[in-house]
Amino acid sequence: MTNKQVLLKFGTENIEQHILKNPIPRSIWLQEGDEPFVQIIDQRFLPHENRTNDLKSTLDCERAIKEMEVRGAPLIGITAAFGMYFAALESLRHDDGETCLQKKAAALRASRPTAVNLMWAVDQQMALAKAHGFNQQLPEALWNNAKMLMEEDAEVCRKIGTYGLELIKEIAAKKPGEPVNILTHCNAGSLAVIEWGTATAPIYQAHLQGIKVHVWVDETRPRNQGANLTAYELGVAKVPHTLVVDNAGGHLMQHGMVDLCFVGCDRVTKNGDVANKIGTYLKALAANDNQVPFYVCLPSSTIDWQISDGLSEIEIEERSDEEVRYIQGLHDGEVKQVLICPETTAGYNIGFDVTPARLVTGLVTERGICQASAAGLASIFPDK
Ligand code: MRU
User: Fold this and answer.
1) Rounded CA gap, 80 and 65, in Å?
2) pTM metric for this prediction
3) Are strands 326-331 and 260-263 parallel, antiparallel or unpaired?
4) What is residue 327's three-state secondary structure?
């Protein structure tokens, strides 16, 4: 099916209407009623099993973030925002409710260290709680605010897509009839946010406009978010893509097989340094050496305005070495883990790295594209 047919199939719907209904289901949604709760896709089992989990308490939200049932900086933030609703509800049952709320907020903030969207979302909710006052109506106010943040994230990502689309169009114009080859790392797709993704938003918009794109998907060891999640969602959206091992990017770039890189990120400093999934830095180095444009796509909730130097000031998550020593996949119809090294070999599992601003061609945000620098960020976020 050609892109044109995909568009025709959706008749009079515009792209926004199309993507809102298709192709990727949301990774988080709400069950509203007398006792509202949250449901999520448990991303640990994709693409092989489609399991959903109910989140009905602060602890459920904390666990879902920590265990990576949900992951991706913006989605972690939205999950924590709903976690704050449960936190308020639970705190009302305590004598010292306000202290209890603060403790639960602190636990949510600590559930993963690197993605600043998590702290941002908890701070948004705590600011609302302060302004609102601690009373019986607070949970409802926090629930409504979390819903607002969730819808805002979808809109922000749509805007990132429209700005990033122009970069794809520029390259497409220079190679008529040929696909624009884009390399991405980890999953900064729809599953990592509410809709569209960050790095994938321009790709989806190009694809829906009939612009030929092809995506090189880094597998992204150790948890393989590229192989498991990005490949899955690009497949559902019918975007041409090819899975490559993490070490292939440099070779592809040397041979002119990558036109540009789009990656997401978990935290950007006010000087434009970027923390993203481990391995991003090596891709940026290879891109720089081969004059391949390297763009980082992000919502402004990923900018940490408090810090300047990414290398010294961003806390980098370290996870269990079991994720390095074992690899997960489908075997005999079941999702299983297999050991890939001698039983006694230790692993080191560092989750993120920092790409210095000098290696980043530009930051694609909901306010437009800017240089990865203090001046660049200030030019589109003068209010910060
Ligand atoms: O450890 P993960 O899977 O949460 O890491 C995700 C990433 O590194 C993404 O690139 C980042 O969060 C951006 S999501 C739009």
Assistant:
1) 8
2) 0.94
3) unpaired
4) strand
Per DSSP bridges, beta strands 260-263 and 180-184 are: parallel
Ligand 1: residue of 263, 277, 319 to mutate (most ligand atoms within 8 A of CB) is 277
Q: Which of 150, 185, 24 is nearest to 76 (CA)?
A: 150
Report the DSSP beta bridge partners of residue 350. 318
Q: Where are the domains of the chain?
A: 3-152, 156-380
Ligand 1 contact, 265 CB (< 6 A): yes
pLDDT digits (tens, 9 = 90+) for 245-283: 999 999 999 999 999 999 999 999 999 999 999 999 999
Q: Please give the CATH superfamily to which domain 3-152 belongs.
A: translation initiation factor eif-2b, domain 1 (1.20.120.420)
**Does the annotation mark 266 as catalytic?**
yes
**Topology match between the domains 3-152 and 156-380:** no
Is the Cβ–Cβ distance between 70 and 79 less than 8 Å? Answer: yes
Kindly report the CATH number that applies to the domain delimited by 156-380. Answer: 3.40.50.10470
Separation of CA 242 from chain center: 20
Which of 44, 71, 78, 200 has most ligand 1 atoms within 8 Å of CB, for mutation? 71
- Give the integer Cα–Cα distance in Å for 40 and 47: 15
Annotated catalytic residue, options 266, 273, 304, 353? 266
Output the CA 187–ligand 1 centroid distance in Å: 6
Tokens at 323, concatenated: 């994720």
341, two tokens: 């090294």
How would you label 61-92 residue by residue, b for 16+ Cβ within 10 Å and e otherwise? Answer: bbebbeebbbbbbbbbbbbbbbbbbbbbbbbe
Q: What is the tens place of the pLDDT at every residue in 338-384?
A: 999 999 999 999 999 999 999 999 999 999 999 999 999 999 999 99
Q: How far is the CA of 96 from the centre of ligand 1 (A)?
A: 36
φ, ψ dihedrals at 260, nearest 5°: -160, 160
Which residues does residue 214 pair with via DSSP β-bridges, in sequence order?
181
